[in-house]
Amino acid sequence: xxxxxxxxxxxxxxxxxxxxxxxxxxxxxxxxxxxxxxxxxxxxxxxxxxxxxxxxxxxxxxxxxxxxxxxxxxxxxxxxxxxxxxxxxxxxxxxxxxxxxxxxxxxxxxxxxxxxxxxxxxxxxxxxxxxxxxxxxxxxxxxxxxxxxxxxxxxxxxxxxxxxxxxxxxxxxxxxxxxxxxxxxxxxxxxxxxxxxxxxxxxxxxxxxxxxxxxxxxxxxxxxxxxxxxxxxxxxxxxxxxxxxxxxxxxxxxxxxxxxxxxxxxxxxxxxxxxxx
Length: 277
Fold this sequence. Notes:
Elements lengths: L1 E2 L22 E2 L7 H14 L3 E11 L2 E11 L2 E8 L5 H15 L7 E6 L5 H7 L3 H7 L9 H16 L10 H13 L12 H19 L3 E4 L7 E5 L2 E3 L1 H11 L5 H15 L2
Helix pairs in contact: 5-7, 7-8, 7-9
């Protein structure tokens, strides 16, 4: 028996009174059952509970692409997109859902609720990236990045993070304390019993490219190159130094202020200047 989960993974409402997200009843989803028939059955059950089916297999478009969601629903003044999975939660299934969630969050329907149903319990990370938690939305922006173009990946982070935070980030060490503060606030505040949110590799890479690009520009001549057996994907060559900003970003996301990216960038640039003729 699978229940329509809230963002916390439990069947519940968000908030209280008239502004509360409506509860949904319980649904039985048979493992391996034909997905179209299961979607139609759940849509009928939602209508019986007072929901209005706006469209089945609704296509959502954004600058990032197009995504199709099985059920588009309105209930209690709220708008929902509902995903239904009758198979196991394999990595490719979770990755596909993250991609569609990223398109939804960058579309005109960005404020809609995304709920996930499955024949198997919905994994915590799947439920998290379907939610509207700031850390989830910020990370979903990064899945479009590409380490083959670290400068463009850095720009994706700078623009997307700045837009989400309502500030215009610059390629300057002076902005890194603010980035640290905002990331700490986003990732240390989570509704699910205080658990720390999952961190996508793509997000670490985006942050690392932004960090590295600050150093590269400050060093006036640094270059990105393949890390080979050293570093995470790409490294930054600045004079006699070879830096791993993506590895540093991962350390910061894991350990917090004890592995400060601000201190790292400032120290790297200071050392580079001291070695310059």
